[in-house]
Design a protein that fits this description.
With 366 residues, this protein is mainly alpha-helical. The mean pLDDT is 87. It has helices at residues 5-9, 13-37, 43-67, 80-105, 107-115, 117-142, 145-153, 157-184, 186-193, 199-231, 236-259, 263-290, 299-320, 328-350, 353-365. α5 (107-115) runs antiparallel to α6. Helices cover 83% and strands 0% of the residues. It is built from 15 helices and no strands.
């Protein structure tokens, strides 16, 4: 895996993504081939994973030699201080992952133990699409990390701030439309996806989905700013904040499940709301603090992104009240038309004239 840093250093993580796509295709092809030729065996899946892993090994080494040939392993350059720095950062990142377990991994377990398997099943359905949106948010936010690292290493802080604001708008531009669409058209989606559920269950699933989406809606506005913590190696305070939020959300969820009739909504919404507030308030302020800037420097951009989302959500909500979905075909068609309209509207809402020219130039080059 150490060879994957070559693409990161050169800001060519698109190479790693292409490599991952090919690896997954190899894995799928091997699984299909093995099951088609031989009697079915469970270990065929692990054999396919092993085959794709061999490809990754060879691809990583090849990519490193091509994009970063000037860097070579040399035992004489070993420095234990750098190892200690990496180890410390790794520990804090591991604690951050523990916080994510507290925030998102225990809700189904709490629901199962306190409210039963039926409600846990509904909550599981409600979290499926929002969790996919969350994964996409993390992927998009991390795309800008190599460029942040290069600018920070060269001590180009003003350029880093400009790039951080611009990338925040890009992530918001990409994600605001699908999140707003999922909230506005979620009920129609669940009616099509879960035709065996009652109207009351559909309403409950939709409401829990909206609650779960709050954290991803907020983090989509600031996810790229979160990467500044890693770039500057300032991870302690965010970890403590996440840990506090995780512990509080678990306590509130357990208490609500035992003391109220709305426990399942507290399970779905408590951590989501708290992490949403963290993303909108703490992340921009802390990013400015570690860059030694005014704490308010990123808030105008975040507010503009939020206003753009609200306008799109209102537009989608109005449209959803005047359309009738008869099947998957009409649903996909309506979503496509609304998506095109929302993306066209988002451009002037989120970007100024100079940023639109910059965005056009980047797309033209690609």
């Amino acid at each position: 895996a150490i060879f994957t840093t070559a693409a990161f250093v050169k800001n060519r993580i698109d190479i790693n993504s292409i490599r991952d796509i090919i690896s997954n295709l190899i894995k799928v092809a091997l699984i299909v081939l093995l099951f088609a030729i031989f009697p079915a065996q469970l270990y065929f899946v692990t054999l396919a994973s092993f085959g794709s892993g061999i490809f990754l090994l060879l691809a990583n080494i090849t990519v490193k030699k091509k994009v970063l040939p000037e860097v070579k392993a040399d035992i004489r350059k070993f420095d234990i201080k750098i190892v200690k720095t990496l180890l410390a950062s790794g520990i804090w990142l591991s604690l951050s992952q523990l916080c994510q377990v507290l925030l998102s991994g225990l809700d189904l377990l709490i629901c199962n133990l306190t409210l039963g398997t039926a409600l846990m099943g509904l909550l599981s359905i409600a979290k499926t699409v929002p969790n996919s949106i969350g994964n996409l948010t993390v992927i998009l936010g991390s795309v800008f990390t190599p460029h942040y690292t290069i600018l920070y290493a060269k001590k180009k802080i003003p350029e880093l701030i400009i790039e951080a604001k611009f990338s925040t708008k890009i992530v918001s531009f990409i994600l605001s439309t699908p999140i707003a669409g999922f909230i506005a058209f979620g009920r129609q989606f669940y009616i099509l996806w879960q035709p065996t559920k009652s109207p009351e269950e559909i309403t409950m699933i939709q409401f829990m989905s909206v609650l779960t989406c709050i954290t991803f809606l907020c983090s989509s506005q600031t996810q790229s700013l979160m990467m500044i913590n890693t770039v500057c190696n300032k991870l302690r305070l965010p970890v403590f904040v996440n840990l506090t939020v995780g512990i509080v959300s678990v306590i509130v969820a357990i208490a609500a499940c035992n003391l109220t009739d709305y426990g399942v909504y507290f399970v779905a919404g408590t951590s989501s709301v708290l992490m949403g507030l963290r993303a909108l308030i703490f992340t921009p302020a802390y990013s400015a603090y570690i860059l030694k800037q005014k704490l308010s420097i990123f808030f105008p951009t975040v507010i503009r992104d939020c206003v753009g989302f609200i306008i799109i959500l209102v537009l989608f909500s109005i449209i959803s009240n005047f359309i009738t979905v008869t099947g998957w075909g009409s649903f996909i068609f309506i979503c496509a038309i609304c998506g095109i309209l929302a993306y066209a509207l988002s451009l002037p809402l989120l970007f100024n004239k100079a940023e639109l020219c910059k965005l056009k130039n980047k797309l033209t080059k690609k």
